[in-house]
Fold these 4 entries.
Entry 1:
Amino acid sequence: MWTRSLLKQNAKDALRGRYWRSFLLCFLLTLLGIGDYSPQYRVTYDLASDELDNLRYGPVWEGNASVQDLWAELNDSNLLFLLQFGVVLLLIGVVIGLCWAFFLVNPLTVGRNRYFMESRQAPAPMKTVLTIFRPPYMNVVKVSALVSLKIALGSLLIIPGIYWQYCYWMVPYLLAENPYLTTGRAMELSRQMMEGEKLRTFVLVLSFIGWIVLSALTLGIGLLFLEPYYQATMAELYAVLRSKAFSLNLTDENELCGFVRHDAGA
């Protein structure tokens, strides 16, 4: 039976002497939009109210036509073209976003999990994250994408999305250990591992709320330093539930052979 304090203490022990390497890794992944607690930064541009008025009502180029005059000259065909153009841009943005998530973010998340699992035993090189791009990379993409889509569809009804998120919490870790797992098997084994553990995992995640509040006082910068600790704790959770799965004969060493160190260039 695991406790939150035990997992967190084990995470601290695993990070001892390896924290800054893990911090750098999490920071680099944050720049790609990968992280559970790392802040996501966006560049915004603020205009004073008088500048906005100038844009709305002031002259355009060097002529006397205002924005309202130009808008009035647009006919229905122009408006239809602009609408179609906007829809096309939106669809292109959606496709690019999905490709970014499916082919980069999800696999790197799996690679990050492998790094933290290997780091439990010995210092792991940062390039461990990139080993996921070796065969069977496309299987990792497929399984991660299908699981993400199921959770996303469930999120439309809120409760099913939250439930499925915790049911399939261990899928990225299972793929990190065995990237050959099929979608059905990865989802099934994750559900079995999370049986009776979903609420406890939710409470474990919630236990970081104090650190999040403190990090908010630093405008989110503190979240960068929290991320390695959080990921190391989640790795400890997987290790415990993995042992539980073995004890219940839910899996064996042929399916989950452990996190053996290997060179990304091998």
Entry 2:
Amino acid sequence: MKHIILFLTIPFFQSSFAQDIKLFDNIWNLHNLSIGGNNYIPPSNDEVNFVSLNFFEPDQMETMVCDVLSADVNFTGLDQFNLFNAGSTFDDCQIQANTDFEILYLDNFFEAHLNDDFNYFIEIDGNDEKILTITNSSNDQAIYGDHILSSQDFYSSQFAILPNPAKNELFLTSKYTSGTLTLKIFNIEGKLLSTQTLEVANKTSIDVSSLTSGIYFLNIEDENGNTTTKKFIKQ
């Protein structure tokens, strides 16, 4: 049996704007959550396959991890809304990582800002897919797409290497702002050539001058065990 917790808020509307049909035409899947400048990848496991956000008639919103958060939506301006009459089920996650993410997403991002306006922006990416970015009053952001993005796809998108091909120096750019990374370089035969651990920076220089010309792979691993691999060419 599900229990429901209600968060009673009394809205004071100065004006009411028409609903944005673009929000209601899609089922939005969470790609990334940014809280306090730190990025968090949504869980993808046996208990939580993905985190979705739905807007539906008449002016209501629902999102869930294990608990389901539902609320009425009031559009207070162009690309702006607030939430009221919010309620949440009481379905505890059994996996600790899901519980931790649920606190960040439902409690910190949404429920802590029920009396404030949320700003949003919808754009089309290079693959003709819609991207929805919602920003709360603390400037935290939740980024959704109208398609399901695997955690591996998202993690890979956080890094880029340049120039490619490289001569003496390879630069790793990162969207992460804190933490440590372990970088490993492998040759095309899979042999490990070098390993280094460093603090995350927006742009990191990697010395590749000692490598002979050919194809190599840079494996990137963060302190949470997330990994991705980038291919580069040494001239």
Entry 3:
Amino acid sequence: MLSKHVLNCGFSQWYSLFADISIDSKSMKLSDDFIQYLLSDGIVLPKSGSDGNDDEIIEDHDWGDDNDHQNGFPRLPDGGGDDSDGQSSGAEAAAPEFPEMDAFMRSALDSLGAVFPKLNWSSCEDSSWMSATGTRCLTPDDVYLLLKSSDRIVHDLTQPFKDCTDETPPVEHELVLKKWVDMNPSMEFRCFVANNQLIGTAEL
């Protein structure tokens, strides 16, 4: 397989040609700092994605050996407990901010209603279990959580040309928000088009 075949399957390569018969969608190029955020360890939702709620932080813990914790809980380091004012003195994970991405998401949600997020090629279906609404996103936080939890998204960002035999070209990664549509999975098909003609279909 050649890299051009992969590029031709990217959202922006075909959407403008078939927009009239495709689900309404909005897209935005990903900035380098947002890509680094998606590839970083742990899950810290951006501050701007919250609607006034406390920042949601989900982190992996290194439990260490049995001497590092008591009663099944990790032992706090010296001085890591609550101080005299009841405030935790432990280090907190800093919540990043992406105002342009946040504005794009809110605009798309206002325009499309609930959305289904994906990147150039892959969606976040593998992380749907992280959200009570699955892949149906109603807020920026919903989108951030699915993106940050998805191995498919990491694959899109790090090795989209894994099986290609030619030189790897540069890629402009983008976030795509598609209008949510309730679909029967048995009625989803992958379509193949050549020379503006539908030449085949296959069940997903």
Entry 4:
Amino acid sequence: MNEDDISKILDRLKCVGMKATRLDRYIIAKAWGIYYAIWALSILLFSGLPYLFYLIKQPFIQTVAFLVSYLVIIVSASYITGLVFSKAARLSKLNSVLKMDSKREPERNSWIGLSIFIAIIIAIVIIGSDVLLNSIGSLVAAAIFILIAIYVYSMIKKSLGRVPLEGLIAVSAFIFSAVGGWLSVLIFHSSEYYGDFWIPTIITWFLASFISLFNATNAISDADTQEGCN
């Protein structure tokens, strides 16, 4: 084997690696695009359902309606999110975050996921009950949402290597909504305007979903248009 043969082999390996990297980016970007859409729709339901439940006159039935509907939404969204990222983890072979090489990593991720799920449930219980009217309760809900936003930011950075603009805007809007909702309860002593502060998050997360899916399509298109690794 001469130097030319070795050079050709190295070029082929480089080409295959570049295509695999683009495919990896496509898988992860698509997963985040679906993630944004799932939770944008969930937040939309969270914000819109109260206007229907306020028509219920019995306080107990109203509270039960809040909690049951919110619980169904959060469980469904969490389950679909798990399916999306589980599939991405199986397909993505190059990304170290999704491969879970060590034996402790799956266990650690499971505990983190469970903790976040419990935290969301606590926040939803607060929002769906009279506890939200309490300044401490609204502060706890805001703190939980901010911690979730920080976690989402860190996972975007770990999975993509950097936080794209749409991800940064989405996380920032989420924090704005959490803080704004808390301040509205604190100032007006009512949750009447709480849902309005989540409108920016709904819009930006749907937009982030579109941009992520568009970028994912471009990534795979670029890989397809490249010359074959022959």
